[in-house]
Amino acid sequence: MSRRALGFIATGALGFGLLAAGLATNASAQDKLVFSVGVTQDIDSLNVTVGYLVIDFEIWNLTLPSLTDRSAEDFSTLPSMAESWTASDDGLTWRYKLREGLKWSDGEPMTADDVVYTITRAVADGWINHRSDLANITATAIDSRTVQVVSAVPDPKLPYLGSYILPKHVYEKISTEEMPNYLADDNVSGGPFQIVERKEGEFVRLARNPNWHGKKPTIDEVVFRMYETAEAQFNALKAGDLDAIDDVPVKLFASVAAGEVENIIGLAGNQGSFSELAINSGCAKGIGDGHVALKDRKVRQAINWAIDRQLLVDKILSGFGVPAVSLIPSANPAFDMKISADEAYSYDPAKANALLDEAGWKDSNNDGVRDKDGVELKLRYYDRSTAGATATTPFLTGWLKDVGIATDVKTFDEDSLIAEQSKSEFDLYTWGWTPYVDPDNMLSYFTTSQVPTDPDVGGYNDANWCNDEFDALYLKQNSELDPTKRAELIQQMHEIFFDEAPYAVLYKYDNLQAFRSDRWQNFTRQPSDVGPVLFSQSSPVYRDLEPVGTRGGSSGTNTMIIVIVALVVAGGVLVALANRRKEDPDDRQ
Amino acid sequence: MSRRYLLKKVIGALLTLSGVVVFNFFLFRIIDRDPLAKYRGRSKLTLEQRETMIRRMGLEGSKWDQFVVYVKSVFRLDFGRSFDSTQPVLGEITARLPATLFLVGVSTLLTICIGLYIGTKAGWRRGSRFDRTSTSAAMVLYSTPEFFFGMLLLAFVAGRTGWFPTGGLRSVGANYGFVGNLLDRIHHLVLPVLTLTLGYLGSYALIMRTSMIETLGEDYLVTARAKGLRDSEVMSRHAVPNALLPSVSLIAISCGFVIGGAITTETVFSYPGLGLATANAIRNNDLPMLQALFLFASAAVILFNLVADFVYALLDPRVRRAE
Prior knowledge:
The structure holds two protein chains of two kinds. Chain A is 32% helix and 19% strand. Chain A is of the alpha+beta class. A seven-stranded mixed β-sheet of chain A has the order 8-9-10-1-11-21-12, with helices on both faces. A six-stranded mixed β-sheet of chain A has the order 14-20-13-19-17-18. In chain A, helix 1 (3-28) runs antiparallel to helix 17 (559-583), helix 8 (297-305) packs antiparallel against helix 10 and helix 14 (468-478) packs antiparallel against helix 15 (483-500). By secondary structure, chain B is mainly α. Chain B is built from 13 helices and no strands. The termini of chain B are close together. Chain B is globular, with a radius of gyration of 24 Å. At the A-B interface, helix 1, strand 10, helix 6, helix 12 and helix 17 of A face helix 2, helix 4, helix 6, helix 7 and helix 10 of B.
């Protein structure tokens, strides 16, 4: 190719680039307030009858209405679709009065019909995210603005009714058979935002819903962008591609918390998430083969005394959490067990050894492992393959070894681990929970009815632990309408759980999130002061966020400048090549 | 090229492909992982819903029954629905295909051009300073996994300077017009392409260099020189075409892998192509997705190998005469 031709191409490319860049800069000069959130988990489904991931719930919180809302301060019940409600004397029947003039984002009226339709169909079709809240509930429309809800049993959760309400005019067209495959791409919203664009595996973009009845959010758009690794996401926050991220790795978060990263703040939010070592207490009927030693409460207590929880909090969580000794039934810390520090399980190997001796497990053959009647105290330890769990395991197995308990560790991904748990063929296993706001669900997991009896069906009682007294108290708190009395009943349940020790609860850990503090303020936490900002129970932050100064948000980066530079460089290289060819005597004739 | 040679190669490719189809079925069923684990236990689905699910996934009946269902559906190009997104697998794959073709296609082209150029020059001037530096560099590139380059570029170029995006396919919610959107896509492509190019450059350079050096000793080069041809002509007309032959298979295999995507690079840059789809399908135990992705990837490699055989025969008379 001649030098002239090359030069021509280079100049052409340059001109083209500049032109395009000029056009582009014009087109992108929009003054939208966009809040970009990085997520490392892709949406599995926006269909509320199918999805179950945290990210799905965050988007539903922004797009689907509910009768009532929760306050950001302490989860107390707030009006939402319903502006007021009244109860019958027996507390079983509730009447909700809807606000006037409610509309879906497509302009259709939002009425009592939508509420009744959703509740009735959710119960009939057994929708996974509705069925536990609505199990005992029937709804009827009194008029277009009044819904009557009847609960078959006294329900302390009412009047709170947070189940997502769906637009009847959209969903009535979808048959029960088709429902699992429905993409929920109708984008009809009844929440503060509506989905305007989604690229699977890339991002979801939401804009303000003009028909939202509540406080108008300051931000124009929320974007959730998928990142595959936590490190990439953190880099994106630093580079300004994102405004907020969740799931910050502990070491990176520590540097943010220490103020080492400019313009970024870290907020460690707690909503009751905890990790535990579940102990197979051997109550599964007809299935399972847990170690005989673990049926003895003393052995289970010994395991609890053998663990140094504070060390785990320091080493595994870098201090972003607190030691815990009983299950955490609620996102609201008011329901945590009340226990004094000197009574709670602490690191006391001597006590653990004494309890094991008392239970009759002694090292009779001097092999370093306790035994009884010819059975060695060697436990199958099933670990889950998440980073936090695998890091904890060497500590736990080491402490158990110190008190003469041998372990055989096997690691599973989460799905496979649940399948193993459903068979009840394990001795110890690592897991964690994030509770709901109402303690009922979490407490129900440890009732006898939740012990797995069929591996295909499974059950939530993953410690295979049964206790009649606990069961009775569970039923009582479940229908106790007086909050103070209910709290007392729950404290009694805590005491039984603590003493029986089907779990070695390790710690309550924080959700580590980071934000661009140079761009945004008003990071509403739920519950106030301690809770998380992103992925909280009802996602109030998106309605409260304010930009710092006149304009916040992740603007488009200087994309076009870079492209111009790249083109100039490419052009330069071409010109240089052309010139070099000229100078090479070997090539020129 | 004889018809017999052609036929033999095509039949060979078809046999390999059917072998892959069969192997593919068993590969994902011998792994000790329950494809339904996600739906088992903890009452996630009602028994009824779970049975529908099993039927829909073709997991009903004996292994043989499942196999028959599987083979039939492969011929209909019906790979069922992804466990994850509940959408048809074929649609999921075709939606991601362009992104991967764009990324891996561009980088393969760059890798081939630059790699062959470096290899040719290094081999031709064996022992020169260019040869010594380029060969050591090629060795370093060859022996470093590409995702490592990706992580470095991500942390130091994207994260520190902000010159390039940290991931994704395009800017969100921006419309720059056709040309602007294209430039935006290119902007997002720079670092992943650079990563892949760096990662695969070394092998081309090294192979080309070796075969150049082998060619240097051939008699026909001496003849060409004796005829009085200029050095550059000897190289471009006589040495390079012969030395290129070993690279043909490498190029063909690389083209095959274009479909398979670049699992690690796409993961590092959150680039939603087929490689990332594969990584996610593995993570989520998404059997139908995995099955289809593996089938497509292996079919692509087989196809391009077939093409390589033909091209080889066209380029090298020795191959077709040997038949």
